[in-house]
Amino acid sequence: MIAVNPLDSASVLAAFGALGVLVVIFAESGLLVVGFFLPGDTLLFPAGVLCAGSAQQPPRLALWQVLLCAAVGAVAGGQVGYLIGRHGGRAVLARTSSHRVRAAAGRAEGLLARYGHGKALVIGRFVPLLRSVLHPVAGALGVPARAFTIWQTVGGLLWSQALVLAGFTLGASVPHIDDYLLPLVGLVVVLSLLPLLPEARRARRARQERRDSSD
Predict the structure, then answer these.
(1) CB of 43 within 8 A of CB of 25?
(2) pTM value?
């Protein structure tokens, strides 16, 4: 029996292939606290690499299957997350003991307030941690169902397909690129965290201004 580590993209892909992509992306996009700790970017990009003809390590995945599973997982997961938020999402967030989950929920609420439903739902898909709580928060805040469905679908498809195709393009153009999957995954993680920097700077400035005003 193969031991599978759901936090390890290589383990998930080796055990379940494209189906593993569907399940993990669904959970990360919709199951709130459970999905918060699962790989997203770091699963889609290596899956794309393994679809390329230059990949030497098993499994050799079919591109169309990975693209389809990634799309279904992202869109269906987003809808489930929204329904969780509509039916008790605030209570679930209040009960969680994870400071990271509560902080991400606060950032998600701020993103929706700052950019509006459409832009926030698209941008949020590309931000790790945030995307796992964004959809339940949108449901809890009463974002209209039609607007949510349209924009989370746009964001989910852009995010999932772009990462898989980026991995596939790199895998097809660089021989034996799968030998360097680990550093590549690290690079993907760093790049995916970049959207958080402006928000972190704004939060730091706001804290400094509050301290200055209280002096």
Answers:
(1) yes
(2) 0.76
